[in-house]
Design a protein that fits this description.
By secondary structure, the chain is of the alpha+beta class. It has a domain of 87 residues: 3-Layer(aba) Sandwich (NADH Oxidase). It has seven helices and five strands. Strands 1, 2, 3, 4 and 5 form a five-stranded antiparallel β-sheet that branches. The longest helix has 21 residues. The two termini are 29 Å apart.
Length: 204
């Protein structure tokens, strides 16, 4: 602990703070190829493993949608729209399909919110499992920023569709939470105002 504390206070703390505050969401439409190479992918994925994980359940997983599988995802997005709106227009279906092709590297984040048989008498609630996934995703996006890559999370009603669940083979205990989109930044977005600490901090 002391060694880590000395290392942080003596050296990289300003760089760590700068990296955290420099992270920006980059929407898929603002991303372009190439995506990360194999070595960069490994660094990004490795960062996810550092997320907190109560009872070491590893309650989440990430599924890459490679370029040759994007058409399958496009079909699932279109079917998800039709599940919600059987009268959806051709242009709406086209727009739903296009979402599958925008990001150079695309991952689906899946959370196992509960287990059929709990390992202990004190099961880890869904909220903690989702927090673990959120930390993993934040770690990954911070590494993306450090590598000069853009990243952003996208979700929507398609995450809850039967079409998407079937495509990814989700169990009854799993939920598709969001997609993580990664690539080089085509057009940076304007910086948004961060909330002040007074907006979210108080004392009991």
């Amino acid at each position: 602990m002391d060694a880590v504390g000395q290392e942080v206070s003596g050296g990289p703390l300003p760089q760590i703070e700068a990296l955290i505050h420099a992270r920006r969401t980059t929407l898929p439409k603002r991303l372009q190829g190439p995506g990360p190479d194999a070595a960069q992918k490994e660094r990004i994925l490795s960062a996810a493993s550092a997320a907190p994980d109560h009872q070491q359940l590893l309650p989440w997983r990430l599924v890459e949608v490679s370029q040759d599988k994007r058409e399958l995802l496009a079909q699932a997005f279109a079917q998800a729209l039709l599940e919600r709106d059987p009268l959806a227009q051709t242009e709406e279906i086209k727009q739903a399909r296009e979402k599958a092709f925008r990001a150079p590297w695309l991952l689906l984040a899946i959370c196992r919110t509960h287990d059929l048989v709990e390992a202990t008498d004190n099961p880890v609630p869904a909220s903690e499992r989702l927090v673990s996934l959120g930390c993993a995703l934040q770690n990954m996006m911070l590494i993306c920023s450090a590598l000069g890559l853009g990243s952003g999370l996208t979700s929507g009603k398609a995450m809850r569709s039967q079409a998407l669940r079937a495509l990814f083979g989700l169990s009854d205990q799993e939920e598709a939470v969001c997609c993580l989109n990664i690539g080089h930044i085509r057009a940076p977005r304007e910086n948004r105002q961060r909330p002040s600490t007074e907006a979210f901090f108080s004392s009991l």
